[in-house]
Design goal:
Structural class: mainly alpha
Distance between the termini: 41 Å
Strand content: under 5%
Bound molecules: benzoyl coenzyme A
Order of helices and strands: HHHHHHHHHHEEHHH
Shape: globular
Radius of gyration: 21 Å
Oligomer: single chain
Largest sheet: 2 strands, antiparallel
Number of helices: 13
Length: about 300
Amino acid sequence: MNSTQLEQNFESKLAKNETIEPKDWMPDNYRKHLIRQVSQHAHSEVVGMLPEGNWITRAPSLRRKMVLLAKVQDEGGHGLYLYSAAETLGITRNELIDQLLTGKAKYSSIFNYPTLTWADIGAIGWLVDGAAIMNQVMLQRTSYGPYARAMVRICKEESFHQRQGYEIMCVLAKGTTEQKAMAQDALNRWWWPSLMMFGPTDDKSPNTANAIKWKIKRESNDELRQKFVNQTQPQAELIGLHVPDKDLKWNEAKKGFDFGTPDWDEFYQVIAGNGPCNKARLTARQKAHDNGAWVREAAASYAKKHMSTVAA
Ligand code: BYC
């Protein structure tokens, strides 16, 4: 097939909502766009283990500790599926990790905020995983096959994560005055950064046009943010907590909430590397990478030995 036919073939698959698979021809920019998004998503999952990992040894009961351990482990698993999906696009794991550690690749802004109290673990599950699912449900229908399939399992697990976070918040909100205040304080601190997870407003989002054209993203940043606010505000009210936004009010005409503007200067500072925990997060990842060198060497050496036994 000549290049025009290859391109027509690609376009026709997209039009029929068929997935693009690793061995299919795809435009270079589609490949680059996906490597950027899928790898940043993978990095987010792995860096996202850090703020919650901080509370594993301090969870208030054995049950809470077991649930949190399982959740954090799930996030590591998500990172692995997503790194594998990114590798099918022709980039190596080493290159991907190098991009993270050198600051060339981004990861979600949300993980550059500190987890100060136990209620933050509830707020992360409820709000951060809640925002993540809102975005990831549409990614189950993304046009690149390996990414879409990874998202199916990830969404199931994220849904459990969201419920465990909301349950922590429910218990705290029904608890002592101090516990309720702690839950409200966590909501106050995590609300706006959670809204920023969806990315800049559509008119300031350089990647959205191609993402929608190529059916990588099925909904825009603003559409998903609106859905998240509509879903989350009633959950807060139900347990007696209040979303920290004086402009939040129901708009009957649009059947959704009007809401205030996140501090976009803060968002751009955080994604430029200047958030409260950016340096600590990358230092922790670098340390884990260095400490894991012997494991990678042992695995590679075992694989080599195994291959030579099979060949013999
Ligand atoms: N943080 O043109 P835009 C999880 C960047 S982890 C940092 O709108 P796009 C979890 C963006 O990359 C879930 N950077 O971009 C884990 C771009 O810069 P570059 C994480 C952001 O790609 C552990 C520039 O800003 N989810 O669930 O169309 C524990 C312009 O943006 C952010 C995913 O990764 C941000 N928030 O849309 C708990 C989902 N927003 O790359 C939970 C997959 C924007 O051009 N990703 N930027 O230098 C996506 O859906 C999209 O990439 C985004 C951004 C909606 C995030």
